Amino acid sequence: MAAMGAISITMFSGVTALAMISDTRVTENTCDIIGFPGDCTSDPQRTVIAQIAAAVFGGHSIAFYYLMVTTALILILAANTAYNGFPLLNSILAQHRYMPRQLHTRGDRLAFSNGIILLAVVAGVLIYAFDGSAGLSEILWAGR
């Protein structure tokens, strides 16, 4: 746990330092960015990681695209881990009566169905509440 914490702190510090050095800017309205390359009314802005990668490796290099694909894979695996681990964690907490008892039962396919349904509902509410988009197009457009 200490090693994971140290790695997280190091990565956060590194990304923050690179973002400050490369003058990374993210705003809600793309037209507010001074010197935005392209049409700010229709072109999306790059993510922070994409801007840093473009500043470090160049916007169309192999290293840039490698970093974008690697970032997408990490995000996909992180989402998969949440969907695998959350129902099991809820089951353990329900066993000790820290969560509702219904989350402890397994479904017909030996999965924690109630926990999976709860996670899907909470994720949907968060996407709706914060006007999020969970589409693959955002990941693909990040490299533009």
From TrEMBL:
GO cellular component: membrane
Keyword hit for Transmembrane helix: yes
Membrane topology: Multi-pass membrane protein
Top-level lineage group: Bacteria
Subcellular location as annotated: Membrane
Transmembrane portions of the chain: 64-89, 110-130
Protein name per the record: Amino acid permease-like protein
UniProt keyword annotations, A-Z: Membrane, Transmembrane, Transmembrane helix
Main location as per UniProt: membrane
GO molecular function: transmembrane transporter activity
UniProt-listed InterPro entries: AA/rel_permease1, APC_K+_Transporter
